[in-house]
Fold:
Amino acid sequence: MPKLELLPAVDVRDGQAVRLVHGESGTETSYGSPLEAALAWQRSGAEWLHLVDLDAAFGTGDNRELIAEVARAMDIKVELSGGIRDDASLAAALATGCTRVNLGTAALETPEWVAKVIAEHGDKIAVGLDVRGTTLRGRGWTRDGGDLYETLARLDSEGCARYVVTDIAKDGTLQGPNLELLKNVCAATDKPVVASGGVSSLDDLRALSSLVPAGVEGAIVGKALYAKAFTLEEALAAVSA
Ligand SMILES: O=C(O)c1ccccc1N[C@@H]1O[C@H](COP(=O)(O)O)[C@@H](O)[C@H]1O
Structure:
């Protein structure tokens, strides 16, 4: 059975690597240089980096040049997200050489464009399903954007290759992932799911590993690594066991 992929996160706000609580602007804890953080995860054995331009997601500017610098410095796979909502921002994201991009708001607000880029770029496109309960949230998670399962069915019918599912209520809280939500999403789609939000312990990673047969392909880990709840080396060992 394939092992759970781990994607350490580097979220960038105002040029700094930060973690938020519930994705709320103003709750930032800063962790310094995004490039240093990304290189540290790479040195620790990461195979993936989840790299987010939070300013672009919130609409408070962007960190596009810095994000491109980080993505280009990586020898590992990069999943890039935040503010990718039109042809220009998608082209800039793909030009960094990232492995795939993760679209959030666009999937809620410009579904025709998302269907078009899914058809053009295949598995280089993932869609982030960022939810409170079963209601999707866009624009920095500040606006409602429809029903999770209706949107999932639409995206499935358009050939979306992969979903990144975030329980906003768990994100940045170290309260454990929402396993029920992940099971329900996996039951509703045949496509792989990357879990995001709430990972707090190696046991959480083992619980997510138990969902690999159901369709959970990977897990984004943020706060737990920055707060040193465990090391990335320990996390990688836990999902290999
Ligand atoms: O990751 C976060 O903590 C986060 C918080 C608030 C908003 C967005 C966040 N993350 C990422 O942003 C993209 C969505 O960006 P957009 O809507 O496409 O502009 C989403 O995929 C999350 O990965």
User: Anything to note?
Assistant: The longest strand covers residues 5-13. The two ends are 12 Å apart (CA to CA). The pocket of LGQLAAA5 is lined by residues 11, 20, 23, 52, 54, 56-57, 81-85, 102-106, 128, 130, 138, 140-141, 171 (CB under 6 Å).
